[in-house]
């Protein structure tokens, strides 16, 4: 018994694996001489307490709380509690707070006044509203713990020089929140110079940054390689499709690109056919392999529209198969079978209609004659 009382309470927890066991042990009359502060400090060090704290206080899921408890430790909840209060006072919702702490648990150990508040104040002075800030930071919480003077101020200053207006800066960052954690003059500046050297006009470069800023943070060698590939495909550097194609080549791993090429070939396309379709709609190479397979199966094997239809209208691959394509195809086939539509009707035009126009033109109009359900 004497050795049991001399053992450090934290050892009891480690052996028995339960905070409840620890608490029962601490309630023993023989331990009244142990101070409350000592008890609390020991409890806060236990994994069980950390998990419960993150779940009950910050709203993390059990899995996220377990991961967070393994990455940081604290002796008291004073600082984490103050961080929670700060975030709530700054306008973050409970869901956003849980998300940002799940991504970056060490945030809860930051000093609200010295570390967090200066970042929020600076970004607000740069024109960011509370909804803007909570949206951006909940996606990239490291913004709050990076250096204000060495990182945030130079990043905003660089974007100001490139984009000009606060509105464009904010919309660009909202589309690629992680760019504030990057060395923009180095990573983005070199790519702007390369684009200009290849004849891309400044107005198009600005549009590219606003739409896909993340592409400018890619590996420089990969960016230059993709630029050459896109130019060799015949894309006009002044066209809107040029950067869409460039961004998609840059953003797709080489092995995945090859896999998708082979997948399209399995349905009968040659490499030239794929390039031709890509030039019409560069997004076809960022679709998942599952999406490609479902869409090509339908158009080539099921619908009777054939490979020629996809070659002519590759952007049809981007539409929803179940919510749009399959249903509208079925309705149109019924109308053709009843002689209400010409068999040579342009299915692509029908697929591209808004839902309201499709219902009005092809469902409501022929409902009685073809027995179509509403």
From TrEMBL:
It comes from the Eukaryota. GO terms for molecular function: nucleic acid binding. The keyword Coiled coil does not apply. InterPro entries: MTERF (IPR003690), MTERF_sf (IPR038538). GO terms for biological process: DNA-templated transcription termination. The keyword Transcription regulation applies. Gene3D superfamilies: Transcription termination factor 3, mitochondrial. Keywords: Transcription, Transcription regulation, Transcription termination, Transit peptide. Belongs to the mTERF family. This is Uncharacterized protein.
């Amino acid at each position: 018994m004497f050795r049991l009382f001399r053992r450090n309470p934290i050892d009891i927890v480690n052996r028995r694996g339960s905070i409840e066991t620890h608490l029962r042990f601490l309630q023993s009359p023989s331990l009244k001489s142990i101070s409350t502060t000592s008890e609390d400090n020991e409890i806060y060090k236990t994994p069980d307490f950390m998990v419960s704290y993150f779940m009950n206080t910050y709203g993390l899921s059990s899995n996220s709380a377990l991961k967070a408890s393994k990455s940081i430790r604290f002796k008291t909840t004073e600082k984490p509690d103050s961080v929670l209060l700060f975030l709530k006072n700054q306008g973050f919702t409970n869901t956003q707070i849980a998300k940002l702490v799940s991504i970056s648990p060490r945030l809860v150990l930051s000093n609200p006044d010295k570390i967090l508040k200066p970042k929020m104040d600076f970004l607000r002075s740069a024109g960011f509203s509370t909804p803007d800030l909570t949206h951006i930071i909940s996606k990239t919480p490291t913004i709050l713990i990076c250096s204000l003077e060495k990182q945030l101020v130079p990043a905003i200053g660089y974007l100001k020089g490139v984009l000009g207006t606060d509105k464009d800066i904010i919309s660009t960052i909202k589309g690629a929140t992680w760019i504030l954690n990057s060395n923009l003059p180095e990573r983005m500046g070199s790519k702007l110079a390369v684009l200009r050297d290849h004849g891309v006009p400044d107005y198009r470069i600005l549009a590219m940054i606003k739409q896909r800023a993340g592409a400018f943070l890619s590996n420089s060698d990969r960016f230059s390689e993709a630029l050459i590939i896109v130019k060799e495909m015949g894309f006009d550097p002044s066209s809107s499709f040029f950067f869409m194609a460039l961004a998609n080549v840059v953003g797709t791993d080489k092995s995945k690109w090859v896999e998708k090429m082979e997948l399209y070939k399995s349905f009968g396309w040659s490499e030239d056919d794929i390039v031709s379709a890509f030039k019409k709609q560069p997004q076809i190479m960022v679709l998942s392999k599952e999406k490609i397979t479902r869409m090509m199966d339908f158009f080539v094997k099921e619908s009777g529209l054939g490979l020629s239809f996809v070659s002519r209208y590759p952007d049809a691959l981007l539409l929803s198969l179940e919510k749009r394509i399959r249903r509208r195809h079925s309705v149109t086939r019924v109308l053709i079978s009843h002689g209400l539509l010409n068999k040579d009707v342009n299915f692509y035009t029908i697929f591209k209609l808004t839902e309201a126009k499709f219902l009005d033109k092809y469902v409501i109009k022929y409902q009685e004659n073809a027995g179509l359900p509403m």
